[in-house]
User: Which sequence fits this backbone?
């Protein structure tokens, strides 16, 4: 039991973790499942393991620092073992306006590095960057078109007219 507690404490001092991540670490260290469950239950009781708080912190942090959209954040939470209901509650803190503002900021920053590139390729790169961060295609193309229009770049075709590739 003491070994399991020490493992969990060490993990939590490095970074916040979900209960599933901690359980995985305990299993990797050959801690019996009943001991792991008892230790994790106790850590939850005292508030040191809290998946809801962890999910909210992760969503807020990744949305602000990496500009991830809700879809990418949901995948991240799933990978970290946060259950769907808890993830849904945490993701509800990101509004459509927050998501659009983050997309605009990402495009604005990336525009500088794509000057001189063919306008269609430039738009594809910008939209592709947003897609990799989980933004829906419609929002990505709209934000890219508006950013390029503000920059007086040549007018781009509608989203459905973008060539593949």
Assistant:
């Amino acid at each position: 039991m003491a070994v399991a507690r020490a493992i969990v404490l060490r993990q939590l001092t490095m970074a916040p973790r979900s209960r599933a991540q901690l359980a995985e670490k305990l299993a990797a260290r050959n801690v019996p499942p009943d001991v792991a469950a008892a230790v994790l239950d106790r850590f939850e009781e005292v508030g040191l393991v809290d998946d809801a708080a962890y999910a909210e912190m992760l969503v807020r942090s990744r949305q602000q620092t990496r500009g991830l959209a809700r879809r990418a954040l949901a995948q991240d939470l799933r990978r970290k073992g946060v259950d769907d209901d808890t993830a849904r509650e945490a993701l509800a803190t990101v509004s459509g306006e927050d998501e659009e503002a983050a997309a605009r900021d990402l495009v604005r920053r990336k525009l500088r590095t794509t000057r001189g590139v063919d306008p269609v390729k430039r738009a594809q790169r910008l939209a592709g960057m947003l897609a990799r961060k989980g933004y829906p295609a419609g929002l990505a193309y709209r934000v890219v078109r508006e950013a390029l229009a503000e920059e007086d770049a040549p007018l781009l075709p509608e989203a459905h007219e973008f060539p593949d590739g």
Q: What stands out?
A: The chain has nine helices and no strands. The chain has a mean pLDDT of 91. The two ends are 55 Å apart (CA to CA).
